[in-house]
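Anyone else keep sequences and C-alpha cells together like this?

Example one:
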Amino acid sequence: MTGKTLYPTQYKSKNAGERMVSTYSSSQQIPIYTSDSFIGREAVENRKATRGLTDWVAKNFELLKLGEPPYESRVVDSLTRARWKQSAMDILERWMAPHATRHIIRRTMDGRDGPTFMMFPHPEDAVGMSLQGRNGELPCALFSLTEQGVIRVFNFRSERITNIEPTDLIATVGFDEQDAYSASGWIAAPTDFLNILRIQSSQIMETEKELEDWFAYLDWYEHMLNENAWTGEIVSAEVVNDDPVTLSITLKSSGRSLELIKQLPGRKGPVAYLIRSPSESDLETASDEAIKAFDEKIELGFVTRGRNHTKNKSKGKSKKNGLVSVNLRPWDDFPIEKVATLVGQTLANDTSDDYGTLVRERKGLERLRDLEAPSDIHKWIFDIARATPGPQEPPELKHPLVDRLNERQEWAVRSALAAPDVYFIQGPPGTGKTTVIAELVNQITQEGERVMVASQTNLAVDNALGRLGHKTNVRPIRWLGKFASVDPDPESKPFLEDNVVQSFFLPSIRNECQIAQTEALTLRSSWQAIDEFRTNSSDITAQLESNKAILEELNQQRSTLIRNHSIAHAEIQSKEEQKNILTQSISLIEREEWALIDLSRLEDNSEIAEQLNQIKTLESHQKMVPILLECLTVLNNFENTGEVDPAQAKLRQEMNTAAADLDFDKAKALKEELEQLEREQSDKATIGWASTSKEIARMGRNLDHTELIDLASLLKPPTDIEQIFERLQSEFEDLLSTAENELLSLDELKIAFGKELRQRSELALISDLSTLESFEQHDNKMSQLDDKISVASRKVNDLILAYNDLLQPLPEEVKFAEINNTSIDSSPEVKSVKQILASGKAWQMEHKTQYQNEELWFDLRNDWITALNETSDSSIEDLKSLYLNLVNVHGVTTAQSGSWHWFSEHAKDPFDVVIIDEISKATPPEIILACLLGRKVIWVGDHRQLAPEFNDPKRRTSEDEDTYDDEGKGRFRDMVTTALFERHFIGADKSLKTSLNIQYRMHEQIMRAINPFYEGKLECGLDQETQDANKQHGLSIRKKDEYGLENKGSELIHPSRHMYWIDSSLTRNNTYCAEEKRGTSYINEREIELAEYIFDELNQQVGEWKKTHPEEEWGNHPHLRHVDRHGTLPVAFITFYAKQKIHFNSKVFAGGSNTTEKRWEHLSIRVDTVDRFQGAESPVVIVSMVRSSPIDDAQAKKLKRLLNNPKISYENVFVNTSANKNQLSIRPPNTGFAKSPNRVNVAYSRAQNLLIVLGNRWAWNGVHVKIKRDNGDVERPRYYQELMRNTIRGGMLDGRNLL
C-alpha cells in the first residue's frame, strides 16, 4: 500500500561548510514501523536479547528530562523492562514526533534485505529536545526498505555525531510511528521520499566494498573445503584390534573421492559418518551438495588411512576396482556385533567439520554490515582516515603504575587511553608490548571499566593475562573453546573458572591487603613520628644548642692554646738560632778566626758588634805590620834609574782594573801573563825603576794603597820621587807606631769579647730548660682540653643522631622544604623545628580521617590476611560465585569471541575496551569478531613480524588439473597475507599510533641483526653492566682436529660474542653440502649435524656448571640463571622448512618430537618452524637456513681441486656471478621463506643471549630481502651480505673447524 502526498514536497541542496547536503521536507506524516529489537527485548526462543532504545533511556534518564526514574538501578531486565519501556516510548514520541522535526538520514551499507539507513535527530536540535546521552551520543534508528517501500526499523544504536556528512539527507518531517508486529497493515512511505533514499550514497562505500570481497573469500573458502568431500561404499568390515576397538574397512569409490580417501592421514583422521548409499551420480561427483542431500547420517568415529588386513585381496586388484582400505575407531557406544551390518552402506566425511571459524567469521561480517557493533568500527575498519584522531598531548595517567614503564611505553598507554575509537601499538620483539597491555588493563579497570583481551592464538592471550599484576581492580578470567578446554595449556589454567579464585583472585586480595597494611603501618608510623617529634624535639634541640655552645667555647680555648704554642715554638726556634750563633762564634774565637765571626743576626748586638768591629780593625792593623816594615825597606833602598817596559805597565794596569771590577778570572790571567813577561825580561826587571815599580805595585796591592799602585804604573819615576817616598815613609812609620801601641788593647778586647759571648751562651741554656717546662705544661693543658672537646662532641653527635631519629620517620612533606626542580644539583632542605611542628600539625589534620579509619581496619585486615591463607573449600566456592560477578577482564581468542553464545552474552553489555594482541597475524574477519564487542579497540602487534597465512583448503589430487581454482586462489592470496594492522599503522593519524623502540629481550649484538627491519630505530634498554649480568650464554667451543682433540687458543665460539654465522657449505674433507628436496619442502643434513654438535657441547658445559655450583646459587649464576624449573636450559632449533624440522626430530630423537631427556639431559630443546615460533623466545637459538643450491659432479670435482690448491684462498672460491677457472658459481636460493623480512625477523629475534645461524654463506650472500619502510618506500638490500659482513668480525665461522 503506497502513501499519498498531501502537500507538495520540497528538497534542495544545502551548504554544510564547503559540502552540499540534500534536504527534504514534507508536511505529510511518514509511516515508520519499529520492531521490538529496536525498542529492546529479552531473549526468547531463537531471538537474541537486544538492549535497544529502552536500555539507552535507562542509562541517560536524568539527561532526557523524563521526571522521576521508575527504579534507582539502571539495570533493564525482565522484571524492570516494562516500566523502563514506558519511558522509552515517551522518548520515541518526542524523537519521531508526528509534527515536523529535523532528522538526519544517513545511508550505511547494504544488508541482506537491501540498503540500510541510519536516522538520528539533527545535532543542532538534539540538545534542545533533550535527546543527547551522557557522552554526547545521539539515538540512532537503523531501518531498511521493503520491496513495497515500507520503512522498517530493525535495530537501535547510539553514536557520537561529529559532523553532518555530504551524503546525508536532512529530512524535516513528522512520523507516524507504529509497532511493526501489531500494526494492522503496513503503509509505504511517500514515493518521492523513497526515491531520494534509493539514490542516496554512503560515506562508507570502501567498507562495503571490502566487506563484499571478504564475503566472497569466505564463500570461496567454504567451496574449497566442500571440494574435500568423499564417500565410499563399504564392501567389507572386520575387527582388527580389541583395545582400542579398531575396524578395518574396505571402501569402494572412484574419481576424486577415491584419491581423497587414499590421502587420509595415518593418525588423527576426520570423523566418519554412516549414510544411506548414494546414487551412482552422487558417487562420481563426491560433492558436498551430494552429501547434504542424504536424509540422515550417523556419526561412527575417527577414520584414518589403513592397511589391507583382508587376506584374499590383492593390491593390484584393489586399485583396479577402486577399492581402498581404511581404519575406523568407532565411538564407545558402537555395538561390535553389528560390524557385519555396515557392509553395503556408505561411509563419508562431513566437510562442515573443517569449517572451523568460517561460520563465525561470516556472521561477524554480517554483524558489522548491520551496524551491530557498539563503536564506529564500520567507519574506519577499512578506511583508517575516517577514525577520529586523539589528542596530540594525551593526559597524564590517573592511577599508579603496575610496573615501571619507559618513556615510549608510558606514552603508548596514555595515548591509547585517550583515543576515541581505536589505537595502534607496534611492539617489536622484546620491547615490552605485553607490559603495556598489562598497564592498559590496570588503568582501564581502575576506572571501573571492563576489558576483553583477545588474540588469534591461545598462547598470546595467556601471555597477556600472565603479565597482569595481582591487583584487586584487575579481575581476569580465561574462556576456552570446546577443543582447547579438553586439555588446557599450563599457561591457561591459572585463569580458568575453576582455578582463578585460588591462583589469581586470592593472591590479588592478599597482595592488596599486604600493600594496604604496609601503607597503614607507614601512616601509623608517620603519625607517631610527628607525635614523638612534638614531644621530644624541643628538649633535644635545647640540649643540642647548649652543648654546641660549650663545644664552641672549648674549641676557641683550644685555638688560643694552639696559637700561643705556635708563638712559643717560634720563640724557641729564635733562641736556638741565637744559641747557635753564640756557639759558632765562640768556636771561631778559639781558632782565632775573628774575621769569620758574624753577629748580624744576634739579638741585642749593638755593643758587642761594635767590640767585634774594633777587634777586627785592630786585627787588620796587626796584619799590616810586616807589610809596612817591608814597604819601609823598599822605600829606603829604591832605584829610580831606567824605565818600565810598556807592555808590563799595560798588563799591570789592566790587571789592577780587572781586580777593581771584581773580574778575578781575568785578573788572574793577566797576572800570569805579566809574570811570564817579567821572566822573559828578567835581566831588565831586576834593576832600576823596573824593579822598584814592581815592588811598590805588590806593596800597593797588599796595602790597598792607591798612590803606590798609581806610582807602579808609571814607565819611569817622577822627578820628585824622592820627596814622594819620604812622605810615604813618614806615613808608614806613623801607621807602624800606631799598630804597635794597639797591640795591648787588642788582647784586652778579645778577652772581654769572649767572656761576653760565653755568658750569653750560659743564659741561653738556662732559658731552654724553662721553655721545656713550659711545653710540658702546654701539652698537659691540650690533652685535658681535647678530652673535654671529645666528650662535648660525643654529646652533640648523640643529640644530632637523636634529632635525626626524630626526623627520619617523618613524612617528607613535613620535614623537607620544597626544592627547585629546575636545579639538577638541588637537594631538599630540612625545615626548622618550628616549621616542622607546624607542618606536622597540618599533616595530621589532613590525614586525621584516614588515620582513624586505618586504625579501625588494621586488626581486621590482619585477621583477613590470616583467613586468606587458610581458605576452606566452601569459602572458595562462595568466592568463586562472587568473583564471576566481579570479573572485568576477559581473555578469549578472536575465534571464541565470535561464537554465538559469547557474542549473545556480551553484545547486550559490550566491553569498554577490547585489546587485541598479536594482531598482525589475524585476518580482517578474525579481527572484526573481537572488535564487534568493544566500544573502543586497541590493536597491538608488529607488522614487521609474521603476517596472516594463506592456506588453500582444497587438497590436490590427480583429478584436479581441469577443475582447480587457481584464479580464485590468486585473487584472495594478497587479501589474506596483507596485514590490516600494517596498512592502518602506516596510514593512521600520528595521535593514534605508537611504536615501541626500547628492547629488553636480546643482547645488543643480536638486536643489530634485526634492526634493519625497523629502520635502525631499535635501542637496547639494557646497559652493558646489565647485559654482562643477565645476557650471558657462557658457551665456549674450541677448534678440534679430526681425532676430537682441542687446539688450545683456538676458540671458535666465545662467551663474549652473542651472534655467529656458521658456514655449512663444506664438510671437513671439502665435500660440498647441498640441500635435499622433500616434496615441496627441503632438508639440509649438514646443518642438522652442526646443530647436534653444538647442542652436545652446550649440554656438557651446562652439566659442568651444575656440578660446580649448588642449586641455590643458580639464580645468581650468569649462565645457570636461565635454566627452567626442571634444571634444564631452554634452547631452540628454528628452521624455515617443515621437513627440516621433521628430519631433525627423526635423526636426533629417533622420530620423537622435542624429547630431550635421553639425548641431552641438561637441555630442553624446542624444534619448530619460524611460523610456529612467533611469541616465544629462548636463551640460545640455532636457526637453520637449509637452502644450499646443489652442484653437479663436474663442479664438485672442480671444487675439490680448487680447495686442495694452497695458492687459492677459500674466501675467493665461491661467487654468485659468472665464475672463472679458479671459481665456482653458487646460485642464490630462489625462495620466499627466507627472503621474507617478517620471517627472518621472527627467526633471529627469538634469541636472548646467543644466536647461531647455520647456512651456506656463499649462497645467501647474493640474496636480496624486500623491506618496506613505514613511509611506504620499498628497498631490496642484500641483507644477508650486510649481516655476514658484520658477523665476519669475529662471528663468521667455517663449519669445517667445528665438525
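And example two:
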Amino acid sequence: MSSQKRQSTLSRFFTTIKPSQSTESTLTEKVSSKSPPLPPPPPPPTASPSLPSEKLLEFGFDGTKDSTSTRTTTTKSKDVEKRKSTTSSGSSFSSESKPKRPKEKRLTPLEKQILELTEQHQDKILLIQIGYKYKVFGINALKVSKILNIMYISNDIEDTRFHYCSIPDTRLHIHLQRILSHGYKVGVVKQIESTIVKQIEKTSKSSDVMRREVTGVYTKATYLGDESNENTKGSWDGLSSSSSSSSSDVPEYIVCINEVSEKQFAIVAVQPLIGEVIFDSFKDDISRQELETRLLYLRPVEVIVITNGSSEQISGPTLMTLKLINHNCNIIHKSGSPSENGNENENENENEAIEAIMSKYLNEKLVEYYSINFSIPIQQCFEYLLLYLNEFKLTNIFTIPENITNFQDSKKYMILPANTLNSLEIFTNTTDHTTKGSLFKLLNNTKTIFGSRLLQKWVSRPLVHIQDIKDRHQAIEDLQSEYNHVVDSISNFLTKIKYLDLEGLLSKIHYSSTNNNNNNLRINRKQVYLLLSNLQEILILVQKFEKSIKSFKFKSSLLIQIFDELLTISQTDIIIIENFLSMIDLSFIDCKESSEQCRKFFKRNSFDSIELQYQNIAQYQQQIEQEQLEIIRKELGNSKLKYVQKDGERYLIEIRNNQRDKLSKILDDKDYILIKSTQTITRYRKKSVTEYLKLLQYHEEMLIKTCDEEFQNFLKDLDSNYTLFYKIIKNLAIFDCLLSLTTTSSLPNYTRPTLIDDDLTILVKQARHPTIEQLRPNYVANDININIEYDKNRVLIITGPNMGGKSSYVKTVALLTVMTQIGCYLPCQNATMGIFDSIFIRMGANDNILKGYSTFMMEMLQCKNIISMMSNRSLIILDEIGRGTGTIDGISLAYSILKYLIESEFKPLVLFITHYPSIHVLEQEYPNQLVVNYHMGYQEIKNNTPGEIPEIIFLYNLCRGVVNNSYGLNVAKLAGISHDIIKQAYRVSEKVKSDIELKEYWKFAHSLNKALKEGGSSSPNQLDDIDYYILSKHSSL
C-alpha cells in the first residue's frame, strides 16, 4: 500500500472529515424535516478513534449481511452520513442539524427463529441444532460456556442475544449431563426436516429456514440417556440413565409433598429410571422427623410442595427439612389444587375435578383405579406429577399399577427412622459421608445394577414376618451347601451383564412406546437388541439345565420359586423373544453411521412399507447407474466411463483437463454441471442425473423415516410384553441379592441365627461389630444376653469410661438385629434372635441450625418421637440423655424418661447409656432383674506421682455393675490437651469429689443419728435416705 493510500485510510479513522456544502445541506434538510432543531453542539473535544462497530460501519459492514454485498450497495453519500453520525466532534453541524439514527438491524430468518424459540421457552436452556453443532445463545450461552469450559463467542456483534457457544452433535449426551448436573432444565432443539424433503415435497418456500422444534426437555432426574449416540460406548453397554453411574449411586426421585394441614401429610415419589412409584400418608409434628425419614430414603433431586389455598408459601419446617436432606434440591411450590373449582370443601366435586385432569393423560380404567384406591391428598400428588412430567413425556410412568407401592407396610417390613439410618451408618458413614464402613457396603456384593438397586431396598426395609426371614436364611444355606453348576452358570451370566441395566432398559421401552416423536426415542436399537438377546440367553441357559433344576433339593421356597418361574417362561414364552429377535439383522451392529444402523436393523421383507421404499430406491439407482450412464457414455464417446464418488458427492464423471477443450461443446450443449476442478481433472454431473439423484436422496430419507416408524411400532409390541420381561428381570434381581448375602454370610466366623417369634430375645455368643471388624484387626467380641421371656434384662443401663466401647456395643446389638431381619448371617459363634418391628436410636450431639433447634431441643424432640411411636416389639437405644442441659435437669430428665420406658405398657427392650451414676439405683427399684447395670471393662493403673491422673487400659468387654468415674481426663490427655491443664483439672476434680463425699457422709450421719434417737418413730423419708446411701455405696463397690 502506498503512503498516500495509507494516509487516506488513517485519516478516515482518526481525522474529522468536513463534508462538502451540498452534501451537508442535503443531510441537514433531511434531518430537520423529521425532527425538531437541536441545541448548539458543545465545544469540540480532541479527536478520538471511532469504536470498533463504528469502524465497521465506515467500511460498509453492518454485521448482518455479507460485507461484499454491503459495500456494493453503499453509496458515497451514505458513507458520508455514517461518518457524520459516528464522529464524536469536529464536524460543522448547524444548530438545526441532528445525526441520523442508525439503521435498525435486519434479522435473518435463522435469527428470527432463534428468538421465537427463546421467547417460547424462557424457563430452560435451549441447545439448538445448527448443522453439525448444538448452539446456545444469549445469556444462557455465558452460563453454559462456564460450566463446560468452552469458548463464549461474540464475533463483535453488539446484539448479545446472538452471542453463543457451541458443542459438537456427537458430544451432546456428555455435555448435556454436565449442564443438567448444575440443576438447569434443558431443551434440545433439532432440525426436523431435511433440504431434500423440503425441495421434493415443497412443504415451504425454498428460501425459508429449516424447521426446528424442541424434541426433548430434560432435568437431572428425568434424563435417561435419551440423547446418547448410537455409536458411543455407553449406548452399546446399555448403561442406566447417567451411563456412568455406578451401582452404588443413590436413586434420583421426583417427590410431591402435600401439606394437607400442619400435622397431616401425603407424599408420592417417582423414579423415572425404573418406573417406580411410592406413596404414603402420615402425621408429623414441627420437627418433621417422619418427613425427614422418608426424604432420607428417597433422596429427591426435584420436589413439588403443595400447600392448601390459605397458605401462600411452604411451611418453614418443611422447607428447612428439604434443604437439610439436599441443599441443591430443586423445589417447586404449588398452592392449592389445579382442579379446584370453587367447591374445594366438597370431596365429590374435588374428586370429579381430579378425574378430569387425570383423564387427559390416562385411560378411563386407570383413572378409576386411582380414584378408588387412593385418598384425595394422594390423588392431588398424582395430579401435579402428571402435569409436571407431561413436559418430559413421562406421564406413562403411571400406567403400570404393579409398580406402585406403599412406603410403609407394617405386615411385611419395618421402616428404619432417619436417626437410626444415620447412627448405624446403614448407607453412609458419619465421617466423610461415603459408603466406606457402611452396612450396605459390607452386604453389597451384587453383580448387576438392578440387583444392587433391589438390595438397597432390602437393607432399608428389614422384614418382620418370621417365615420370610427364614426363607432368606434357608436360601443362603442352600447356596452355601455344595457346588451347583446351575447356580454357578447363572452367577457367571450375571457377572457378564454387570454394566447392563435390564430394568432401566425395559422402562425406556415403555416410555418410548407411547412417544410419537421419532426424533426423541428413549432407547436406541443396540440397547433393544442387548435387552432381548440377554433375556433369550438366560432362558436358553435355564432350558439347558432343565433336568438339574427339576432335581434340585433346595429347601428354600424362595429359590424354588425363582427357578420354577424361569423354567416355565423358558418353556412357554421364550418363543415371544425369539420372534422379536428373528426380525433383527445382526449386521446392523457393525454399522458405524446411525442412519445405516437404522436401515439395516430389520431384516429385509419384514415390513411391506420398508420394502416399498427399497423398491423406489432401486428404481432410481437403476435409472442413474444404467440408463443415464449409458447415455453419458454415448455423448462423451467413452464406453468404459464409470461414476466416481468424491467428498460425499455421488455419481460424478471425471474428465482430464487435457481432454476438456475437445469435449467443451458437448459438455455445454448436454447440460453437464461443473462440480469441482483440480490441476489435472475436472468433475461433472449431468443435469438429468442431478434430478434423479434428488429423487433417490428423497426416497433414502423416506426409508429412514419409515424404518423409524416401524421401529416405533416394534417398541409398542415389546411393551405389550412388559409383564413377561419384568418377571424375568425381577427373578434375576432377587437371585443376585441372595448371592450377595451368601457372599457376606460366607465370611469367617459368620453363623445362621436361630429365630424366636415369641419374645424379644437377643442371645449372642462372641458378637462382633460387622463393619468395624472389617476395618480394624483384633476386634474384641462381646456376649449379648438379653432374654425377656420372664421380663428379665429388659432394660440395660450401661456406664463406663469415655471411649470404652459403650456406643460400639449398643450399635452391635442394633446392627445384628437389622442383619438378621434382612436375611443375612451374623458375625458371632451362635445367636438366638427375636423379631422386632421397629428400632429407635437417640445418639450423638447434633444441633440443627437450619431448623433453628439447639442440641438439647433436638435431643428432646427425638425422645418425644420415640415415646410416641414405640410398640411392644421395639428396640430402643438412648445415649447420654440429658447431657445437653444443666446437670440437675439432665439427671432428672434422664431418670424420668428411663422410668417411663420401664413402666410403659408396651414393655420395649431398652439399652440406656449414661454418665449419670445416680441413675443406677433403678436396678434396686425394680426386682427380678428387670433393670440391670452394666459397664464397659477397663483396668486402672494407679500413678504414685502426686497430682498425676491414673492410667487406664480399655478392655472393651461388657461387665456387670456400675462405674462412677468416666475418666474424661484420660480422654483429654489422649487428645493432646496440655499437661498443666490436665493436672489442674485433676486437682479440681478430686476436691469436688471429696466435698461431695463429705457432704454425703454428714447427711448419712445426721439421718442415722436422728433415726437412732427417735427409734421406731423415724419418718419414711429418713429411712429412704439411709437406704439410698447404703445401696449406692454397695453398688459402687
